[in-house]
Design a protein that fits this description.
- The chain is of the alpha+beta class.
- Helix content is 28%, strand content 38%.
- The chain is built from 16 helices and 26 strands.
- It is elongated.
- It starts with a helix and ends in a 12-residue tail after the last helix.
- The relative contact order is 0.04.
- Mean pLDDT is 82; it is low at 12-28 and 106-116.
Length: 650
């Protein structure tokens, strides 16, 4: 009886100790595991912490692991282990969720503190934050020794990619097998400014000391689809970038850019060929183009009344400096239809642009020349046939900062060019012919160009003796010496237009004005200017200078329904041309640029003082050049303008 209570006590104590041992084993493993794990983590970061640890057979679950020194926080870290629980061998890890905040600039100390002792494992949805950019990364890593690797999948606001990191003994390397970036993340490498903002797709490889090479394609430009191949390499200390593409993929972009540059112009074309661009950090771009533009359609009221259709081939190499907006093309060629043209361009397109263009062609076949000009530009000359050969070498300089530096030089040889057939006849004008004239208000009159058909026609020998001298002074100083075109006039008009920033002065000679008046409409277009050039050449070939001046003096517009100086003499002064004073002739010459505008002097019966001063200047210059008689000049300066009453004022 006495022994029984002792047995019960022993049994109770044994049961308690067994339960306590069980709890100790269960809870002690968590505690011991937490201590072992925390000790291992603090080898990486002295301030490491774990919120809680749970154990399972050969599994350790760590919740809210924080390494503040490395700016790493992992929501859940699962450790797979084997062996002695007190001295476990970690087989692999699984990290689920968390954040890694990268420093703005990685210091050498941080790099030296890196460890590669991490065992194999996987990671899922880890957020890497750098410069307020968040990238979600998932993947696997293979081990903890040099030569191991990490495979990953990343997704960010700047793009997506898949690839791997290889751990080396002296440097680690990054290989992205595929990426699709809208921009380059962080400070991975310096991308030229012109490539920023595009959507890039391709592959790249890099080392962690910022050497990098990449290749792929740009698949979007300004919202339009594209396929531009690119390569990037900065292994030599500078970032080298090259782009190449089939120009056909840029059709929409090129058309939109051409439209924005050219203004109110409709343009369309089908491009083919290649474009190659080469970038370096100095912001200079090398450009090489080998392209063809088929089915080119251009509609502009400045160019022609009709839509112009043509074909253009273009090849050139050059450079563009983006900071100074300087362009240099030293080897360019273009083929318009069948006509080859070589060109060189240098330019500066900043606040004070300067543009220097030289283009030339040798031994152009007359047949190729006329076949290459679209019918929409030929107008009345459609059907023209040429033979023989021609050549030209033209240089144009436009300087908006120093307009007087603008220049125009031209060497044109058409001595070997022959007209085989022309829809516009010139020969009959040598002694007769007629023309239909239209004034600024639309009034028309058919004027015969000889005294037999037109009794009011004034032959050259009967023109006022001061007329030619004053005409040359006001309109065409080199009339007697040029072949229809005057570089001096063209050069001065270019300088005046550049200085004003708009068209204020033309460079037409008397011969060019006559060609325009005889054969062409009044509307100003480049097509009309092209036709005017050909017809001027023909007039100078067929007609003498006396005949050109004779016709011009009898048909030029000088007021409402007023054509020729004889008609004008009667309209303004009630006398024949030969009876006018030199000052009266000077007045008629002075209103040639704008008879519709300056006719108001007659309507108001008053010539303003500034215009009287202009007449004095014309007279004095003509006298200084011996183009008018000295006595006539003296009398003209003392004279005054008195009109007969204007019918419009009555």
């Amino acid at each position: 009886m006495l022994k029984r209570p002792c047995s019960l006590r022993f049994a109770a104590v044994t049961a308690f100790l067994s339960v306590a041992a069980l709890f100790f084993v269960i809870l002690g493993i968590d505690v011991i595991s937490a201590r072992i794990t925390l000790k291992a983590l603090r080898e990486l970061d002295e301030a490491a912490s774990i919120r809680s640890v749970r154990t399972a057979p050969e599994i350790l679950i760590l919740n809210e692991v924080v390494l503040p020194g490395r700016s790493i926080a992992i929501d859940r870290l699962i450790v797979y282990w084997s062996g002695n629980p007190f001295f476990p061998e970690i087989d692999s890890l699984l990290a689920v969720g968390g954040t890694w905040r990268l420093p703005e600039r990685e210091t050498d100390a941080i790099r030296q503190h890196r460890t590669r002792k991490c065992p194999p494992g996987r990671f899922n949805h880890i957020e890497i934050v750098h410069d307020d950019e968040t990238t979600v990364v998932s993947g696997v890593f293979s081990g903890k020794a040099p030569g191991d690797s990490m495979e990953f999948l990343l997704d960010s606001e700047w793009g997506r990619g898949t690839g791997n990191i290889l751990f080396g003994r002296e440097r680690d390397s990054l290989h992205v097998e595929w990426f699709q970036f809208r921009r380059i993340p962080g400070e991975l490498f310096a991308l030229p400014e012109m490539l920023q903002g595009f959507e890039l797709e391709g592959n790249l490889c890099a080392t962690l000391n910022n050497t990098l090479s990449a290749s792929g394609f740009i698949n979007e430009v300004n919202g339009d689809p594209a396929e531009i191949l690119f390569t990037v390499n900065n292994t030599g200390g500078e970032t080298y970038v090259s782009l190449s593409t089939d120009i056909a993929t840029l059709r929409e972009f090129l058309i939109s850019q051409a439209g924005s540059m050219l203004g109110d112009i409709y343009i369309d074309f089908v491009p083919s060929g290649t474009v190659f661009l080469e970038f370096v950090e100095s912001d200079t771009i090398g450009v090489a183009v080998d392209a063809r533009l088929d089915s080119v359609r251009i509609h502009s009221t400045v160019l022609s009344d009709d839509t112009v259709n043509t074909i253009v081939e273009l090849r050139f190499r050059g450079t563009v400096c983006m900071s100074s907006l300087e362009v240099n093309i030293d080897s360019g060629s273009a083929v318009f239809g069948s006509v080859p043209v070589s060109f060189e361009i240098t330019g500066r397109f900043d606040q004070h642009p300067r543009f220097d263009l030289r283009f030339w062609s040798e031994d152009i076949s007359g047949e190729d020349l006329i076949e290459s000009i679209p019918d929409e530009l030929l107008g009345r000359l459609t059907g023209l046939r040429l033979g023989g050969y021609a050549s030209f070498d033209i240089r144009l300089i436009l300087d908006w900062e120093v307009p007087d530096s603008s220049d125009f030089q031209a060497s044109v040889d058409v001595s070997g060019l022959r007209v085989l057939a022309s829809p516009v006849a010139i020969g009959h004008l040598r002694q007769g012919g007629s023309c239909l004239m239209r004034d600024s208000r639309g009034r028309m009159r058919n004027i015969y160009l000889d005294t037999l058909e037109n009794p009011d026609f004034v032959p050259f020998d009967s023109l006022h003796p001061s007329l030619e001298g004053l005409l040359k002074c006001a309109e065409d100083a080199t009339f007697r010496s040029h072949n229809g075109f005057c570089l001096y006039h063209i050069r001065n008009s270019i300088r005046a237009n550049v200085e004003r920033g708009r068209f204020v002065r033309g460079g037409s000679t008397i011969s060019m004005q006559l060609a325009r008046n005889l054969f062409l409409e009044r509307k100003k277009t480049y097509a009309r200017k092209l036709q005017e050039v050909f017809l001027t050449w023909r007039l100078e070939t067929y007609l003498s200078k006396n005949r050109i001046l004779e016709i011009y003096a009898n048909i030029v517009e000088l007021g409402p329904d007023v054509f020729g100086f004889q008609d004008a003499a009667r309209h303004y002064f009630g006398a024949d041309l030969k009876e006018l004073s030199t000052r009266q002739v000077a007045f008629l010459v002075s209103i040639l640029p704008g008879p519709a505008l300056y006719h108001r002097f007659h309507v108001n019966n008053n010539v303003p003082d500034y215009w009287e001063a202009y007449l004095d200047r014309l007279i004095n210059i003509a006298e200084d050049r011996d183009w008018i008689h000295a006595d006539s000049a003296v009398n003209a300066i003392a004279d005054s303008i008195v009109f007969i009453p204007c019918p419009e004022a009555l």
